[in-house]
Amino acid sequence: MTVEVFKTNVDEVESSEILIRKVLDHFPESRVNFDMEDCDKILRVEARKVIPERIIEILNAHGYTCEVLT
Predict the structure, then answer these.
(1) Strand runs labelled E in 1-70
(2) d(Cα 64, Cα 1) in Å, to the nearest integer?
(3) What is the pTM of this model?
(4) What superkingdom does the record give (predicted)?
């Protein structure tokens, strides 16, 4: 399994739940969660193959910023 961690500006639990479903639509075999308590509003995606560019596109399409946390 590969784990990618992203910094986002998602600040509402309701929005995070919607975005998790959207990510799962594209990566159905993955585990996805947000850490809303973290200052970087972390999005964590665990899957066999994570395509960071696609995750970023999904969040950007819904009006949020997203970047790989290094």
Answers:
(1) 2-8, 31-35, 42-47, 66-68
(2) 26
(3) 0.94
(4) Bacteria
CA 40 – CA 33 distance, rounded (Å): 13
pLDDT band at 70 (very low <50, low <70, confident <90, very high): confident
**Total domains present in the chain:** 1
What is the CATH number for 61?
3.30.70.100
Q: Can you tell me the distance from the alpha carbon of 1 to that of 17, in angstroms, rounded to the nearest whole number?
A: 22
Q: Please check whether residue 34 is in contact with residue 16, taking contact to mean a CB–CB distance below 8 angstroms.
A: yes
pLDDT at 18 over 90: yes
Work out the average pLDDT over 18-42. Answer: 97
**β-strand partners of 18:** none
Q: How many CA atoms lie within 13 A of 69 on its CB side?
A: 15
